[in-house]
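Our working data are protein records whose layout never changes between entries. Instead of coordinates, the fold is spelled out as a row of discrete tokens. Here is such a record, shown just as it appears in the course material:
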Amino acid sequence: MDSHMALAFALPIGLAITGFASAFGIGKAVAAAMDATARQPEASTKILVNMMAGCALIEALTLYALVFGFALMGKI
């Protein structure tokens, strides 16, 4: 097995894992924010701002992985 074949197998699997992990992380963040808002409705603005900042970071990491994966696919 050469490096091209290893990249051809590993890149789609890595991108799929990244996508699932991102979806799981965002889902967990939104669920926690909804629980916190249900417990303390008066703090909903602070909770929403913090949740959106966290979701933006998760999405940024996912996009970095996607760009990195596409850059490596050019090496195949």
User: Anything to note?
Assistant: Helices lie at 3-39, 44-73.
